[in-house]
Design brief:
alpha/beta; 7-stranded mixed beta sheet; 40% helix; Rossmann fold
Length: 359
């Protein structure tokens, strides 16, 4: 069947790069003589038949905008066969021949369900957690990492001025990617992630070791999904503040990580993936995700995508610890009695005595 009209939607958590992807889908489709339909509010819009045409003027100025002009929404009903068949009915009624879906883990589960009902579609991976398999990087990651890095740099300024230990919480309920890579890029002293959790006691030992080295601050990056959690570590360190060498503060970055102007790398990635999605959809290659592996476009069957979860590469976690403490030195240094920990040069007035996306 020749494809003449395609639709595009964004689903799950918004991410920088979604708008550049929408723009590229529309421009590439129009270049191929196709009609493009925008679906508002993700899968909820499919079930509500919330469709409208997307023309060149509709995508003007969105290349540098965060978020998604098509919006997103929770759609619990789409997890049911009834909801999926309602969406299928609306797509067929509107004369839509194919669909491009942009989103993360939960979004891909929904796309796979719709694909199994026989509707032609191609997906584009988009999640700041970077936890989808079969792609080196997902839309949103580069911009979110730069947001985290900017926050680390600024917090370090004030931490050093007041000799403080700062816990900085990043997003990542099931993945420590943002915390790990942001921590490495920002030179964090300690990184707490779900995949390699340290205890509050170990965190305290690490802070003591850094104070012993004469540092003026300690930056601890905590992934949202780390257990026992940022608040628990903060409470423990506050209760043992006299043993730290630093006063302790906490910052939760929150949804600031989802917003912001997409970086150059983000815009280029979004454009490449979106163009590949349109080309493969019109060529009849459907039920696939377009990813980037080794800087080349890779197509992967959705059945494989939804059955795989990508965790962080713990070699990077080991690298971060080696660069900060050296091999096997953290506990030995931290074992010094608090009173014997050396002062920072220059003294100072202070005394011692860290689900899948929704559809």
């Amino acid at each position: 069947m020749a494809i003449k009209r395609i639709a595009v939607l964004t689903s799950g958590g918004d991410a920088p790069g979604m708008n550049p992807a929408i723009r590229a889908v529309v421009r590439m489709s129009l270049a191929l003589g196709l009609e493009v339909i925008g679906v508002e509010r993700g899968y909820q819009g499919l079930m509500d038949a919330d469709f409208h045409p997307l023309r060149l003027r509709d995508i003007g100025g969105i290349l540098g905008r965060g978020g998604t002009i098509l919006e997103s929404a929770r759609a619990e009903e789409f997890k049911t066969e009834t909801g999926q068949r309602k969406a299928l009915h609306n797509l067929n009624k509107a004369g839509i021949d194919g669909l491009i879906i942009i989103g993360g883990n939960g979004t891909h589960q929904g796309a796979y369900a719709l694909s199994k009902l026989g509707f032609p579609l191609v997906t584009i991976p988009s999640t700041i957690d970077n936890d989808l398999c079969f792609t080196d990087v997902t839309l949103g990651v580069d911009t979110a990492l730069n947001t985290v890095l900017d926050a680390i740099d600024k917090i370090r300024d004030t931490a050093s001025a007041h000799q403080r230990a700062f816990l900085i919480e990043t997003m990542g309920r099931n993945s420590g990617y943002l915390a790990l890579m942001g921590g490495i890029a920002g030179g964090a002293e300690i990184i707490l992630i779900p995949e390699a959790p340290l205890t509050p006691e170990q965190v305290l030992e690490g802070i003591q070791a850094q104070y012993a080295l004469g540092k003026a601050h300690s930056i601890i990056i905590v992934a949202e999904g780390y257990k026992p959690g940022t608040q628990a570590v903060y409470a423990y360190l506050r209760a043992h503040e006299q043993e730290c060498g630093f006063t302790v503060r906490m910052t939760i970055l929150g949804h600031i990580q989802r917003g912001g102007r997409p970086t150059a790398a983000e815009r280029i990635l979004a454009t490449r993936l979106a163009v590949a999605a349109v080309e493969n959809l019109t060529a009849g290659h459907t039920g696939l995700m377009v990813g980037l592996v080794g800087n080349k476009i890779q197509l992967t069957d959705l059945a494989q995508v939804v059955s795989c979860h990508k965790g962080v590469d713990l070699q990077f976690f080991d690298l971060a610890n080696t660069l900060e403490f050296g091999r096997d030195k953290m506990l030995r240094t931290a074992a010094l009695p608090v009173a014997d920990l050396p002062r920072r040069n220059g003294g100072g007035s202070k005394t011692m005595p860290r689900v899948p996306e929704e559809m």
